[in-house]
Amino acid sequence: MTADIETLTPSLKEQSRKPLGQIFVERGLLTEVSVRRLVEHAKSKDIRLGELLEVIGLVTQEELAEALAIQYRCRKIVDFAKYAYPSAMLRLVPMEMAVKNTIFPLKMDDGKLALAVADPTTEGLFEEIAARHNLKPILYVATRSEINRAIARHYLGQAIMAPNAKTILLVEDDMLAREMVAKILKRQGYEVETAVDGMDAFSKIFTLKPKLVITDKVMPKLGGYEFLFAIRNIPEFRYMPVILMTAAATPDEEKEALEKGFFDFVLKPVKEIGLLTRVQRAFQSSERLYGKTG
């Protein structure tokens, strides 16, 4: 890592920040009318404007990172996953914290800790890191893809795969059931990657970037509900459809599964027609997640 750490003035809380929508208007990426409509749409979805713009594809990750860097008067950093990072520094930001908040520790020097962040608005998190380690955080804005690439390489020892529009992550601890379901899906042209339990799936999801997850309910280490809760705390996977496989689904359990955030559920033993119908519906739902805005 060769970038120097520079002190930014004044502090984040003391800065007068320009609205994100105004920055996009000034850069010619959006009109004022579009921004007003999108702000209202973001409020109705209870998400930030930048997150909405990225999800529906009106701005790229790079354009969002550049706008956030302008708004928070931070530097933008790219291509940092290729450098080596000592394990002692990585431990300053545990993997769970790095994954959940999309941050990565870059360098520690003279009482300062440089962090690559996708969302500089989470000031409480940075204050927590500062208090825990008695270090002053210095923020560098990066895209989610860049940070996840660094997390995958340096925390998980893996490389991020090129995304496939039809990739499904199948999570099932029973080998025969896993092979049977995978075979059904592959016959329909889906790219199927497998995990043996929720913990295995959690470590793979960042590198595979699936469009859909199908998970068993009861598994060792991390069950279906626990796995769903874990990935719903990660902005990048907050809206990805997840289908629950369960051996018994009473009306109460069906209601609980949907209320907890599962897109749908499939009864075991899995029937081909029912499985494929739900998978197709999940992909269609993903494509029209926000419908047309603007």
Low-confidence stretches: 1-14, 290-294
Helix and strand element order: HHHHEHHEEHEHEHEHEHEHEH
Task: Give a short account of the largest sheet.
Answer: 5 strands, parallel
Strand content: 15-25%
| Terminus-to-terminus distance | 41 Å
Please give the CATH class of the largest domain. Alpha Beta
Output the strand order for the largest sheet. 6-5-7-8-9
Query: What spatial form do the alpha-carbon principal axes imply?
Result: globular
Q: Helix count, per DSSP?
A: 13
In CATH, the architecture of the largest domain is 3-Layer(aba) Sandwich
Please, what is the average pLDDT? 86
Structural class: alpha/beta
Radius of gyration computed on alpha carbons? 21 Å
Oligomer: single chain
- Any idea how many domains? 2
Q: How many β strands by DSSP?
A: 9
